[in-house]
């Protein structure tokens, strides 16, 4: 790593209050939209927190956009906790939600509570998220019973891609949509403080949002949700494999990075870098002394 160069830091933004699950509820009651983004590391979490995002999700999308896995299924508790700690060191205001990885909450209720607890104790998170509907209600009751806030996740649940037949929109038939409405009501009753709705028809997400007292956070679920979340690597154009239709790309950092790396390689190969301003000099007298010493 190079020697740090002092830079002028911007004046501190007006101190914001820590966002809590209560803030989520109040924002819904006031009709204010909730903003959420994913982060997996310290500098991204820091920038997001400074920008004023309400909540940061350390999503298990980590597996695909950072670790290069094919899908989210191989992600482990240890990998999640490692990245949660980095995010917690960067973000002090946003509500921090840790995503429970595949097989960390499905095997037994006891394991689900223990693993949820690790996100708070070892990962520095404020809450956990887990995927699934009625089949997860008992685990959610037990986790919230232990004092751990739970965010639900319905619709396209990537940990079930093999059961769903791939990354496909959900709730498109009347019967599938009815099941989703019932599941959302059950998750609210089980104690979730909020629910992510992923890849469901906009009018269904709007209806669910109106029927629940807890806020919904949409991703590919239209503008009727109480909040919105995106995978940051999609928003920044950092994930090269594919961009879901519902993503708005605000930058193309993958192309920017590739260009910066190519420029560096060219500078080094043509000896334009390092230049004088990147170089440590030695006093002439000391240099002469050295040459004399060496003979
Ligand atoms: O893992 C993740 O990033 C998520 C979001 C897509 C909601 O679950």
Low-confidence stretches: none
What is the strand arrangement across the widest sheet? 1-2-3-4-5-6-7-8
What is the CATH architecture descriptor of the largest domain? Alpha-Beta Barrel
Helical/strand content category: alpha/beta
- Would you count the extended β strands for me? 8
List cofactors, ions and other ligands.
3-methyl-2-oxobutanoic acid
Shape: elongated
Count of helices?
Answer: 12
CATH class of the largest domain: Alpha Beta
Radius of gyration, whole Å? 23 Å
Largest sheet: 8 strands, parallel, barrel
CATH superfamily of the largest domain: Phosphoenolpyruvate-binding domains
CATH topology tier name of the largest domain: TIM Barrel
Whole-number tally of structural domains: 2
Distance between the termini: 34 Å
SSE string: HEHEHHEHEHEHHEHEEHHH
Could you please describe the fold and organization of this structure?
The chain is α/β, with parallel strands linked by helices and 295 residues long. The chain has two domains: 21-251, Phosphoenolpyruvate-binding domains (TIM Barrel), CATH 3.20.20.60; 256-294, no CATH class. 42% of the residues lie in helices and 12% in strands. It has helices spanning 21-30, 42-51, 62-65, 77-90, 109-121, 137-145, 161-164, 174-190, 202-211, 232-235, 253-269, 284-294, and strands at 34-38, 55-58, 95-99, 127-129, 150-155, 194-198, 216-219, 227-230. The radius of gyration is 23 Å and the shape is elongated. 40% of the residues are buried. The site of 3-methyl-2-oxobutanoic acid has 12 residues, from strand 6.
């Amino acid at each position: 790593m190079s020697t740090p160069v002092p830079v002028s830091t911007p004046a501190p933004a007006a101190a914001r209050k820590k966002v809590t699950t209560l803030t989520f509820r109040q924002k819904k009651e006031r009709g204010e939209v909730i903003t959420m983004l994913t982060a997996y590391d310290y500098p991204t979490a820091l920038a997001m927190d400074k920008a004023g995002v309400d909540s940061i999700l350390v999503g298990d999308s980590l597996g695909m956009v950072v670790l290069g896995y094919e899908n989210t299924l191989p992600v482990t508790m240890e990998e999640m906790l490692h990245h949660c700690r980095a995010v917690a060191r960067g973000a002090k205001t946003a509500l921090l939600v840790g995503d429970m990885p595949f097989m960390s909450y499905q095997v037994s209720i006891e394991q689900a509570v223990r693993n949820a607890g690790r996100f708070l104790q070892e990962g520095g998170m404020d809450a956990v998220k887990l995927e699934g509907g009625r089949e997860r209600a008992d685990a959610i009751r037990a986790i919230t019973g232990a004092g751990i806030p739970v965010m639900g996740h319905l619709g396209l649940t990537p940990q079930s891609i093999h059961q769903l037949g791939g990354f496909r929109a959900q709730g498109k038939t009347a019967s599938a949509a009815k099941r989703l409405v019932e599941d959302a009501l059950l998750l609210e009753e089980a104690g979730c403080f909020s629910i992510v709705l992923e890849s469901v028809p906009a009018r269904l997400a709007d209806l669910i949002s109106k029927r629940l007292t807890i806020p919904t956070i949409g991703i590919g679920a239209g503008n009727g949700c109480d909040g919105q979340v995106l995978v940051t690597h999609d928003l920044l154009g950092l994930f090269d494999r594919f961009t879901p239709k519902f993503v708005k790309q605000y930058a193309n950092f993958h192309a920017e990075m590739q260009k910066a790396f190519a420029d560096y390689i060219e500078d080094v190969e043509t000896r334009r870098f390092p230049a004088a301003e990147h170089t440590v000099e030695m006093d002439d007298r000391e240099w002469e002394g050295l040459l004399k010493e060496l003979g």
